[in-house]
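Materials and Methods. Structural model of Putative phd finger protein 7. The 278-residue sequence of Putative phd finger protein 7 from Corethrella appendiculata was retrieved and submitted for structure prediction as follows.
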Amino acid sequence: CFICRKKEKNFIRYGKFLVKCKLPVHYFCLLSSVYIPQNGKRDKDGIFRFELQDILDSIKQKFGEKKCYICRRKSAAVKCYVCDNHYHYICGFTNNCLTEFFDEFKSYCSLHVPPPLSSDSSTIIDKYYEFFRKKCWICHEWMLAYNPVTCIEASCCKLGWFHRNCLLKYAFYDGQNMKCPLCFEKSFVDFVLKRGIYIPHRDPIHELYGNYYEDIHKTKCLVKDCKRTDRRTMIGCNVCGNEFGHLHCLGVAGANAKEYLCSKCRDQSFVNLIVPKR
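The predicted structure was written out as C-alpha cells:
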C-alpha cells in the first residue's frame, strides 16, 4: 500500500486493495487518514473521489515522516483524535485502536478508545469470569477475555455479544440491509459504525448475483434424477429460498424441512442465527 507501506491484503479487515495508475492503496487507509482530502465530485474521480495528486502531496508534505507509535515506521496516516499518536491503519487494527466509519471518521489510539455507549458494558469488566463463559452469537465460539474494541454488544436489545471480526463479515455480506442479528433492529447500525465496523454502501451480497434466485420459481425439482412432475412436498433453502426440490429427492426428512440449507448458505456461519436449533 502506497500509504501505509504494508503488503497485507484482507478486504474485510482493511478494505479493498485498490490500484489506479500504478498507485496501490488500502481503502480503509484512505478513509481513516486525516491528511488526505476528498476533493473529487464523482466516484470515478481518482480513487473513490480521493484525487491521486492529493494522495501523493499528502504523503510528501504531511504524513510521510510521521512515525507509527506501534511499529515505529514512517508514513503513519492515522492520527488519534485525542492525542498526537500516529499509526498505520493495519497496526491500529491489530493493536486495539478504533476508527469510526461515519461522519468525520475519527480515530482513536488504544489509550483513548471511547467506552461503548451501553449500560452493561461498564459492569461486564467487573464480571470477568461471567463474560469469559459467553459465546459470540454469530460464530458460537467463546468470547473469552473482554476487550472494548474486539467485543461488541448487541446495544439495542442487549441479548448477546459478537466478535468484531464476525460482525465485519456479517456487515460485508448484508451491506446496507444490515440489522441487529438478534432482534433485527436497524438502529444497531449506528452503534457498530462507532465501534469500527465498516458497512458497504450496496445491497446484500447474495442479491448482487443476477441468477441467485433464478430457480426459486421453477416448477421442476433441481435433482437431476427426479422424474416427478408434481410440486407437492417441495421446499427451498430456509435462508434464501434457493435450490428448490422435493423432500425425498433432497434427502430431507419432513421434520427437518425448516432447517434445510442450500449449498451456498450452508458454509456461511451467520445463518446459524436464522436456522432454529434442535
